[in-house]
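WARN no homologs supplied; continuing
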Amino acid sequence: MSVKARTEVSGVDLAALAPELERAGADCLHVDAMDSEPVVGEVRATSDLFLVANNGVRNRATVREYLDYGADAVSVGRPSDDPRVLRRVARALRDAEVSA
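OK structure emitted
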């Protein structure tokens, strides 16, 4: 089961919520970081869930940042209709996989 959650939601602590989701049977958490990339690291520190980071993934630097915070994968939202952006993200992920 996967769960998608946004950061910066008042009263929601994703790092505290992640272990509860895991105990409830979730195996994937899709974190919509909304310019709060460090939250991915906070969630990684409390959980073994497969983490998908989203929002702001546009190039090698943003892919690397999410992976460095502990994301297992990234998800491209906007501008997902721009083929140039999609190619840059795909190259960045391939490069990250090779260097891991």
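The two ends are 27 Å apart (CA to CA).
OK
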